[in-house]
From TrEMBL:
The lineage of its organism: Bacteria, Pseudomonadati, Pseudomonadota, Gammaproteobacteria, Alteromonadales. One of its GO terms (molecular function) is metal ion binding. InterPro entries: Bact_metal-bind_prot9, ZnuA-like. Residues 1-23 form the signal peptide. This is Zinc ABC transporter substrate-binding protein. Keywords: Signal. The gene is znuA. It comes from Paraferrimonas sedimenticola. Gene3D superfamilies: Nitrogenase molybdenum iron protein domain (3.40.50.1980). One of its GO terms (biological process) is metal ion transport.
């Protein structure tokens, strides 16, 4: 019989069955910005994003692959405030995961951790596809995103209590890096204060709010509707009066209305990334903010 020294073996087994080796969480994000946040707060976890930066998060197909990912998820993080109202309920129902049901422990919404801008008391069906619970595209407000990070970190620790100390440490590291990035961004973006833009939808509402910019026109006549020619004609006048520095469109929006307006007004068209996209070299939230601010400064 071969005798082996049982001490190192015991230590190895212990390390396998305790702490991070045991718990590899499955984390489901509705949008890539929240997958990126999960990666900051739980770098060892399996993180999955239901959509890419090139997909419209208002309109997603509840595909079988999404259903099976949500079925196995320990925690899910979505924007909330009705952004995913067209597809997430179906996904939750089909996933049949008790934690992911409405009100379930594992289902997190960024909007629950913050106050959304532009909340409305009442919305009529004539208003188009507006967000009654406020604007859900909050990930371009770095302060609100930090509040969300704190809430998500707590939920991670509750889901995986053995590793709560490491989630706490990850949050602290992220918060330090993020705070210092905020002051760099604010200094750099100072020239954007008071500038005007025309944009597609209220996608960058929180960025304007943060940096003191103003959206003077929307390519959508009503939220969710594509630009009509009469609406574009109005925007030509607005552009002449208001002198916006750019027309902003994001990756999943049809650029044609913006291109036409740009050709008529000589206001440059900027296609800004809506989210993290490794394919485009935007690997994390820091890259995303850098890219958006640098692109705006380049035309300012
Ligand atoms: Zn929206």
């Amino acid at each position: 019989m071969v005798r082996i020294n049982s001490k190192p073996l015991f230590a190895l087994l212990l390390s396998l069955f305790s702490g991070s080796a045991l718990a590899q969480l499955n984390l489901f994000a509705c949008e890539p910005e929240y997958a990126a946040l999960f990666k900051e707060l739980a770098p060892e976890a399996n993180v999955y994003s239901a959509t890419t930066a090139k997909q419209d998060p208002h309109q997603v197909q509840a595909r079988p692959s999404l259903i099976s990912k949500l079925r196995r998820a320990d925690l899910a993080l979505c924007a909330g405030a009705d952004l995913e109202v067209g597809w997430l309920p179906m996904l939750q129902m089909k996933a049949n995961n008790a934690k992911m049901r409405p009100g379930g422990d594992g289902m997190l919404f960024a909007s629950d951790f913050i106050d959304n801008l532009d909340q409305r008391d009442s919305v009529s069906r004539f208003d188009g596809d507006v967000h009654a619970d406020g604007n859900p595209h909050m990930h371009f407000d770095p302060y609100r995103l930090l509040q969300v990070a704190k809430g998500v970190s707590q939920a991670l620790a509750q889901t995986d209590p053995d590793n709560s100390a490491s989630y706490q440490a990850n949050l602290q590291r992220f918060e330090q890096k993020w705070q210092s990035a905020i002051s760099t961004w604010e200094q750099k973006a100072a020239p954007l204060k008071g500038t005007k833009v025309i944009a597609y939808h209220s996608s960058f509402r929180y960025l304007y709010h943060w940096l003191g910019m103003q959206q003077v026109g929307d390519l959508e006549p009503k939220p969710g509707l594509p630009p009509s020619s009469s609406h574009l004609a109005k925007l030509v006048n607005i552009a002449k009066e208001q002198q916006p520095m750019a027309i902003l469109v994001t990756g999943y929006q049809d650029p044609r209305g913006g291109e036409w307006l740009s050709s008529r007004t000589q206001v440059p068209l900027l296609i800004l990334p809506m989210s993290v996209s490794e394919k485009d070299g935007i690997n994390d939230l820091f890259d995303l903010y850098d890219t958006v601010i640098d692109s705006l400064l380049a035309v300012e």
